[in-house]
Fold:
Amino acid sequence: MKKFAIVLSLLCAMSFFGLQAKAQDANMSAPKGSAGVKMIWDYKKELEMSDGQVAGIKEAIENFQKQVLDLRQKLQATEGDIQELIQKKGDMDAIKAKLQTSAELQVQLRVLDIQTARKIDTILTPYQLNLWREIQQREVAKQQQASKPKKPAKPSDQ
Structure:
């Protein structure tokens, strides 16, 4: 049950931000969702969002993506260092220090995600936030339905 809650939380977060595996380049005017993933501002009309709200959310997500890109690059480099130390049978203290750095970077990523979600929560009204959560649930259900294997049609008994 705990795994399901974690997976559902991750799906909601991905749906919420519409994040791609890689963050957008810093010079892009606004982040875009990956193919088929709608961003929160794509629901502007349904959520009755003002232009100011959309701008605030875009800014929060752009900042999030820039910081995520930087942290992921650091994490990737650190993980490479760890693998190299392990392969070369490096000093255990050095491996431990790199593992600590990796863990700290992962914590920073999680905290950044939570902070950004809370920032967006403050931009939306309580009504919009509740409506957005309903939209997220609807979209997650659609994704789950689409990923279910289709049953082959039964041959007719004619």
